[in-house]
Amino acid sequence: MTVQGWVLILLFTAIIIALAKPMGLWLFALYEGRSTPLHAVLGPVERGFYRLAGIDPQAEQSWRTYAVHMLLFQLVTLLFTYAILRLQGVLPMNPRDLPGIGPDGAMNTAISFTTNTNWQWYSGEAAMSNLSQMLGLTIHNFLSAATGIAIAFALFRGFARRQVSGLGNFWADITRVTLYLLLPLCIVYAVFLIASGVPQTFASMVDATTIEGVKQSIVVGPVASQEAIKMLGTNGGGFFNANSAHPFENPTALTNLVQMLSIFSIGVGLTWCFGKAVGNTRQGWAILAAMMILFLAGVGILYWQEAAGTPMMHGLGFAGGNMEGKEVRFGLAASALFAVITTAASCGAVNAMHDSFTALGGMIPLFNIQLGEIVVGGVGAGIYGFLLFALLAVFVAGLMVGRTPEYVGKKIEAKEVKLAVLAIAVLPLCILGFTALSSVLPQGLAGPLNKGPHGFTEILYAYSSATGNNGSAFAGITSGTPYYNALLAISMWIGRFFIIVPVLAIAGSLAAKKYTPETAGSFPTTGPLWIGLLVAIILIVGGLTFLPGLALGPIADHIAMINGQLF
What we know:
Blueprint: H1 3-32, H2 39-53, H3 63-86, H4 103-114, H5 124-127, H6 130-160, H7 170-195, E1 205-209, E2 215-219, H8 223-232, H9 253-277, H10 281-308, H11 311-315, H12 331-344, H13 359-370, H14 381-401, E3 406-407, E4 410-411, H15 414-438, H16 442-445, H17 452-467, H18 482-511, H19 528-562
Helix pairs in contact: 1-7, 1-9, 1-12, 2-7, 3-4, 3-6, 3-18, 4-18, 6-7, 6-8, 6-18, 7-8, 9-10, 9-12, 10-12, 10-13, 10-19, 12-13, 13-17, 13-19, 14-15, 14-19, 15-17, 15-18, 17-18, 17-19
């Protein structure tokens, strides 16, 4: 580890904390439906959408109506993308004459991008036309991100409102987030990327001559526009197979820093927005503090492990850290930081190959996903996932002080706790169940490249990434088979919507309750004790659930490596 590495980590953390309030203010304006400076230009566009669709943005929706409209919207856009991918071979803007995607691959990809997972079993530059990348995939990067933020807004209203049934309007929420937040930021972001050397063109390839004099054709396309929303919307699906390790997606140390900041920026803003929505911004700062503790712990362990290198290499006389699978232009610290950021959020973009990390280093991104990606997390999904743990923590606190649990002015009763536990239990049931199945069936065992505990980790990571809607992979697994395409698609759908629906049910239940003011006997939910309890609950639940799987995978891999056995 180096001083420069820690300076980068601490600088990133300071900038992210500084961004929380400005981003939160913008999000809070959208949450309330208030005008922003952009309304003067985009307001007529918004109203035109409503008139065209016959929508009254002021019409309040119950949690059931909100959920049904959201699910129908996801289904329609999923089928639209499936059709684009299947018909790719006969559609325009296909300069390399790529064929259509097969049924199982097209369905896996359509579900992947609909659920904000962006898992890619294919090589983007070799399988997708420009039209498929832009119309089939990038459109989901905007809409899935906007959906996550809309669900977070609905949950905020559940906490903030009193004795009502309405949670807002799904169509108004998703339209405002897309028009006034995601699109404007991505336009500026894409221009920055283009100026930094990221391609943005409808051309197919450029020809280059290497130093050895060999001619090479290099794929290009509309990369910058996809890259911007890929990061800002915590999507992660890259134009190129190497993702953000590719110099056309992430050419410099500056673009690398900006990409890392963009992954976290909306997520930290939503913590402040939550505090403002419930009338106490200290609540939001407390949540952000707990997130930052978990984040810095993960970065510290991963950076330490990668800087230490492997015992096997030390035995051969090679000192220094583990640079396998990492880009020299980024180095150890930036690679470790990026890996923790992208898996703490549900982004899935990578600037280094997680499969090449040390055993314990690779365990940190895996464990981040298994915690539910609530350490800032995906846009919207991170905060509503974290609030599920907050409900669980306040329930435990209520048991300890002998009072009915309360959180931000609402009594937390059996219904909310059961729904929170149901949503939290979805992840381990899906991850561990499908991992166990694939660890014994021939179709599952045909996937991992490596044997032993490392191969098991590849399987475990795949289902963790899919269910957690992350999309990154351990890279050693061959997942583009009908078996894996089907099971991973199911995992992605369950991991997204089997959590969203209970979250909306919780929001509806809370909105119907009256406000309960704090008293001297109330458990405080803004101080160090609360922050410590939150962190402890998250780690205990995650540890008890996934430690056996981690012991069979990365921990066993590390012990075997110490004893001279590699897989």
